[in-house]
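Hi support team,

I've been running sequence recovery on a batch of backbones for a student project. Most finish fine, but this one hangs at about 90% for roughly twenty minutes before it completes. I'm not sure whether the input is malformed or the queue is just slow. I've pasted the structure tokens below so you can try to reproduce it. Let me know if you need the job ID as well.

Thanks,
M.K.
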């Protein structure tokens, strides 16, 4: 936990998503995984250690976060895991050149409402390119007024809530945080909505 600034800190949501990745470990060998907004990369590192082919990404505008991804890989003896700069909402050469993806990981990417549409634009692009892929995401409930439901409809995406108790992540010590107040972590899986008639 080197720094409490955004992508340089292992937030409780990352711990919960890493627990879900671990719970799915038997299905991960050979799967192609992309972690967005990776920061310290805990979920992506766990996926790589479980045999997935992982690519880590964070904003190309945040070189410290990209360096944090690289440092996490080296610390965990994963020197060959690629780290790429992807900025949400931007169709960049790096985004266009990504290979096929089965699973997209994102912990606490739904942090600032001004970024929600950019995140879902990027997720929609990736899911359109990989229609059978899923976006596994955890987030901390910070405001009852924040919702992505309207944006999910706009981008023809659907979400499935995953109860934390279903993968042993409802224990207080697992997602404990030194932040003041009580913190509720939620998990959902986002995928392309089925078209009518399919």
């Amino acid at each position: 936990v080197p720094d409490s600034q955004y992508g340089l800190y292992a937030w409780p949501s990352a711990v919960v998503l890493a627990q879900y990745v671990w719970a799915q470990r038997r299905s991960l060998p050979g799967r192609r995984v992309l972690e967005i907004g990776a920061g310290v990369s805990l979920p992506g590192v766990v996926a790589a250690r479980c045999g997935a082919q992982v690519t880590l990404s964070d904003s190309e505008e945040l070189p410290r976060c990209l360096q944090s991804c690289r440092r996490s890989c080296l610390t965990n003896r994963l020197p060959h895991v690629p780290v790429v700069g992807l900025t949400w909402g931007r169709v960049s050469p790096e985004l266009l050149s990504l290979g096929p993806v089965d699973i997209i990981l994102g912990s606490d990417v739904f942090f600032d409402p001004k970024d929600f549409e950019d995140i879902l634009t990027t997720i929609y692009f990736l899911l359109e390119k990989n229609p059978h892929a899923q976006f596994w995401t955890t987030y901390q409930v910070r405001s009852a007024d924040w919702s992505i439901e309207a944006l999910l409809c706009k981008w023809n995406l659907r979400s499935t809530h995953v109860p934390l108790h279903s993968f042993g992540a409802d224990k207080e010590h697992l997602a404990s945080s030194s932040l003041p107040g009580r913190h509720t972590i939620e998990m959902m899986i986002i995928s392309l909505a089925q078209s009518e008639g399919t």
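--
Follow-up from support: It reproduced on our side and the slowdown came from queue contention, not your input. The beta strands are 32-35, 53-58, 83-85, 103-107, 134-141, 157-161, 184-192. No action needed from you.
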